[in-house]
C-alpha cells in the first residue's frame, strides 16, 4: 500500500467516513519532516511524514496537541490519526490556513492563560522530542534539578558525544554546578509549556486567531516559553505587552532567559553544527560572568 493510500484509509477510519483522495501534495514545512496537504474535494488535512522509526515522535506530538487543546489556552491544530506504511510514519492534522500576522495581543493573553492552568509538578509523563533530538522528561518536584539534568546536562552530554569539548564542556560543567544562583528569591510555578515556541511555530487564522503548533510539551517555568519566543527574531511587541499585562514577569527573567535559551542553542549545535557551538560557548561564559 502506498503512503497516500494508507493515509486516506486512516482518515476514513478515524472519521467514520471514507476519504477518497489519492494524492499527497507537498506544502511548505519544517526541516525535519515532509509536509503535505491532502484533499478529497470536501475535506482537507495536513500530513507530516518521516521514516517509519519516527512513529513514536508523531504519536508524542499528537498527544501533546491534545493536552494543549485541553488546557483551552492558545488554539492548536487538532490531531486526527497517526500510522505507518510504505516505510514511512505519518501524522494527520486538521488543515489550517495560517497567516504571518494577526491578533498578537490575544496570543499573549491566551498563552498566559495556558501557563496559569494549575500543574502539580514539573516534567512530563514520557520523553518526547525537541526537533529531532530526544527530550528527557519524567516528573520532578525540583525545577532546578530538572533543568540541570533533563535539559542543559543532557544537551552537554550530546555535545561531548558529537566532539564539542573544550571551553563549552568546561564552562558548562561550572554552570551546572551553580544554577541555584539564578533562582535567588524566585520559585517558578509549574506551567504547561509549548516547549519550542519560536516564531516559526505560530501563525494566525484569517480572523486573527493565534495558533501554535509543533510542540515539545512539558511542564516547566513559564519563562522558558517567553525566552524561546525572543530567539530567532521574536514575536510582535503586542504579544509581550499583553502577556505581561495578564501575568507580569519576575525581574530576574532578564538573566534567566539566556539560561533557558542556552538549551535551544545547544540543541541546534547538536543538530546543525559548529556555528551554534560557538554561540553556546559564548552564552555559557556570559552566564558565568553574571554570577561571579
Question: What does this protein look like?
Answer:
- This protein is an alpha+beta fold.
- The chain is built from 9 helices and 13 strands.
- It has a 5-stranded antiparallel beta sheet with strand order 1-2-3-5-4, with helices on both faces. It has a two-stranded antiparallel ribbon with strand order 6-9. A two-stranded antiparallel ribbon has the order 7-8.
- A hairpin with a 5-residue loop joins strand 11 (202-204) and strand 12.
- Helix 4 runs parallel beside helix 8 and helix 5 packs parallel to helix 9 (274-290).
- The chain is globular and about 65 Å long.
- The mean pLDDT is 96.
Keywords:
19% strand, globular, 5-stranded antiparallel β-sheet, 292 residues
**Could you tell me how far the N terminus lies from the C terminus, measured between alpha carbons in angstroms?**
62 Å
- Strand-pairing-aware structural class: alpha+beta
Q: Mind describing the biggest β-sheet?
A: 5 strands, antiparallel
- What fraction of residues sit in β-strands? 15-25%
For the biggest β-sheet, the strand order reads 1-2-3-5-4
Summarize the SSE layout with pairings.
Layout: H1 3-15, E1 25-26, E2 34-39, E3 44-51, H2 55-71, E4 79-85, E5 88-94, H3 104-116, E6 122-124, E7 128-130, E8 133-135, E9 138-140, H4 143-161, H5 167-177, E10 190-193, E11 202-204, E12 210-212, E13 218-221, H6 223-229, H7 237-246, H8 253-272, H9 274-290
Antiparallel strand pairs: 1-2, 2-3, 3-5, 4-5, 6-9, 7-8, 10-13, 11-12
Helix pairs in contact: 3-7, 4-5, 4-8, 5-9, 6-8, 8-9
Amino acid at each position: 500500500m502506498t503512503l497516500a493510500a494508507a493515509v486516506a484509509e486512516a482518515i476514513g477510519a478515524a472519521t467514520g467516513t471514507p476519504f477518497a483522495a489519492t494524492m499527497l501534495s507537498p506544502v511548505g514545512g519544517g526541516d525535519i519532516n515532509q509536509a503535505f496537504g491532502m484533499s478529497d474535494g470536501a475535506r482537507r488535512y495536513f500530513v507530516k511524514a518521516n521514516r517509519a522509526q519516527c512513529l513514536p515522535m508523531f504519536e508524542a506530538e499528537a498527544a501533546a496537541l491534545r493536552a494543549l487543546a485541553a488546557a483551552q489556552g492558545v488554539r492548536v491544530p487538532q490531531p486526527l490519526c497517526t500510522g505507518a506504511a510504505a516505510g514511512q510514519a505519518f501524522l494527520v492534522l486538521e488543515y489550517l490556513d495560517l497567516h504571518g500576522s494577526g491578533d498578537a495581543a490575544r496570543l499573549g493573553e491566551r498563552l498566559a492563560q495556558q501557563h496559569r492552568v494549575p500543574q502539580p509538578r514539573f516534567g512530563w509523563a514520557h520523553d518526547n522530542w525537541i526537533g529531532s533530538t530526544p527530550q528527557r522528561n519524567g516528573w520532578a518536584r525540583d525545577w532546578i534539578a530538572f533543568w540541570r539534568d533533563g535539559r542543559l546536562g543532557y544537551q552537554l552530554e550530546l555535545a561531548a558525544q558529537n566532539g564539542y569539548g573544550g571551553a563549552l564542556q568546561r564552562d558548562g560543567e561550572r554552570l551546572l554546578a551553580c544554577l541555584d544562583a539564578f533562582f535567588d528569591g524566585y520559585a517558578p510555578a509549574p506551567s504547561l509549556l509549548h516547549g519550542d515556541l519560536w516564531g516559526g511555530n505560530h501563525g494566525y487564522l484569517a480572523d486573527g486567531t493565534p495558533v501554535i503548533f509543533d510542540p515539545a510539551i512539558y511542564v516547566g517555568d513559564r519563562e522558558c516559553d517567553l525566552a524561546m519566543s525572543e530567539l530567532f527574531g521574536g514575536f510582535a511587541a503586542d504579544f509581550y505587552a499583553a502577556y505581561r499585562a495578564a501575568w507580569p514577569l519576575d525581574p530576574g527573567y532578564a538573566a534567566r532567559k539566556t539560561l533557558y535559551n542556552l538549551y535551544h542553542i545547544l540543541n541546534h549545535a547538536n543538530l546543525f553544527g559548529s556555528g551554534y557551538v560557538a554561540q553556546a560557548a559564548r552564552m555559557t561564559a556570559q552566564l558565568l560572568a553574571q554570577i561571579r
